Each structure stands twice: as structure tokens, then as C-alpha cells.
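Task: fold both queries, return C-alpha cells.
Query 1:
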Amino acid sequence: MSYVTDIPTASAEIARDHFLHRLSVETDCSDVAATLRGGEPDFVLLHVVGSPQAYERRHVPGALHLPHRDISAERMAQWPAGTLFVVYCAGPHCNGADRAALKLASLGMPVKIMIGGITGWQDEELPFASGKEPGVLHA
């Protein structure tokens, strides 16, 4: 026996349900980039941490800067009901995306976290945008 096999594996049904649940609340940098390159994302990408200056220095192309502390029912009313929000933060060491996702879900809004955040985006060697505007990810 090893540390890997000390605890028996879950049944295929339990494993399937677990991974389906995880994928229902998260996405990754590669999937977001592929969708952005397609030109018509079916979600709103939110950069939910940091100062406006940090956002201007570097953000995922297409992302709007909306810090999690500023998420409110009034603020989110500018989007149609049912809009999917994908949120990201600095990376695995940051819980800003979790805070934003909790707020959005508590407001009844569909949400997924882009796992990895800025760190994951950089690790995948994907290009960043800079400036006050969201920018575009080119194909």
C-alpha cells in the first residue's frame, strides 16, 4: 500500500459527479483564451482584484475591472439576467475570485472561476492587455 492507494478510489459514478460539479463552477485559462480568440464570448470576464493601476499594467484581454468589494446588486443590474460571469484574481495564492464568485452566486448570478488567475495565464504564456480598456485577445 502507498499513500496513493491507502484510501480506496471512489466509484465511477461518484467520481463523475465530483468532476462534473467542479467543472460547473470553474474553467481554465486555456478554455477562456480559446473562447476569447473566437471573438464572441458567451460570458463576461471580470478582473476582481487589485487597484485600477494594477489592472492598467496587466490584465487578461477582454476582462473588465470590477473588484469583488464593488460587486453589488445595483452594479450587476447593468447586465441581463442569466449572464454568466467568469472571475479571476492574481492566482492560486489569492482568494479574490472566490470572494467575487460567492457574491455573484449569492445575488443569483451564474458564475465560474478561471482557475490559475493571472499566474495561470502567464504560465500558459498567453498575452496580456494593458491600459484602462479591456483589450482584445487576437487569434
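Query 1 returned. Query 2:
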Amino acid sequence: MLLTGPSTSAASGNGAEAAAQMKRMFPQTGIDGFLPSPIPGLYEVTAGGQIFYFSPEGYLVLGEIWSKDGQSITAQRREQILAGKVKELPLDKAVTIGNGPHQVIEFTDPDCPYCRKLDDYLSAREDITRHIFFCPLETHPQARDKALYILCSTDRETAKHEVFTGMWDGTRPSLKNCSTTLLDEHLRLAGAVGVRGTPTLWVNGKRIGGANIEAIASILDNPNAKVQAKKRRATND
């Protein structure tokens, strides 16, 4: 799909000129990143977690670039960009549970049945460190209060266990003097790394969408992953 803008008689000579040209042509379009694409004369633009393309001839191109072997270059770049943002997540704002060598970053909803299934599995593993961010969905009206209850508790691990095992189902937890600031930050971070549903997690840096326990286990139980995890732990100790 093409969105046309003002035409120009010649393409810009370099990326800096092309970026400036795009800002002049489309002043209301925010730009997070601007790089040459695999197609000469076409530039990759990232904005708000999305990728589109700019031609200095005056066009924005919405769509994907595919290689001759059937791989979506756009999808690969999107994953690379999000992976970079995941590495920048402030883990001190997460609920961190465990001290294992494998690193698991989770975005979860306390009332999502798939999230609870995943929590059962991850809670039983002793070889992981979990960094949990909450992303209560509007379809679960009690989930926000449950997330706040966990975040405002002095013992977050116990509170998380209570919530995910159903102890607070049908009963509103006490939220006296509970600030929403941290939960609001979790939701902002979820948007920044492209979370569109729960659970979404990164296991040793690899993104997994949904409670795909088989895929998670294949990463955690891979002999090479175990070696790398031991190296990471030795480096951090």
C-alpha cells in the first residue's frame, strides 16, 4: 500500500538527507529509527514499534519486504527491534522471582487462564529467574485490582501465588494506600515492546507468544542453552 506525499525530482543522496526530507514531507509522522532498506533508494522507518518504508520520491510504503527464499525481512527486523527494546527493560520495576541461570521476562494478566497455566509450569522450575510485568486486559475487569494487589504487597511472591491460584477470585483485594504508578509503567512498557496479548514472554532473549510450554521447555532444556545459562550466571556472580 502506498501513501503518496509531495513528489520530488530527485532522491536524496544519503540517509540523513532522506530523513530530513521525510520530516519535511510528513511532519506529523514520528520517527524512532531511519535506515537504508534492502531495496536501493528505499528507507526503513520505525515508529511506535511499527516498520514502514520511505521513498525520497515522495511515498510512504506500508507493507512487508520478502526475500526470494520466502522470508519476511520486515518481520525479522521487527523482531530485532523489539529484542533490542526488551534488553532495555528496567527489570528493577518487575516482580523478580527465583535465582536460576535462565532469564524469563513475562508480560502477564492475573485473570488470563493461559497465564495461570504458564505460571504453574514456571513456578515449578528452579533453574529460572522470572521478571514479571503485569498487563491486565480490559476483558478481565478484576485483573487490574489483582495486579495492583501484587505490586503493592510487601511480599510480592506470596501475593502473586495467592492471585494466580485463585485465592482472590470473586473477592476484591484490599488496595488501601496502593498507588497505580508502577502498574501504569508496566502497561507503558508492554506497549513499548509490542505486547498485544498475554502471556507474552522472552526466554533467554527469545520471544514466545502464548502459553507455549513445549516451546519454552525446548529452550530451557536445550543442552546448549544450559551451557550458556551457566556462563551467564558465572559472569553475574
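Both queries returned. Flag for query 2: The beta strands are 2-4, 33-36, 43-47, 50-55, 59-61, 95-97, 102-108, 128-134, 200-203, 206-209.
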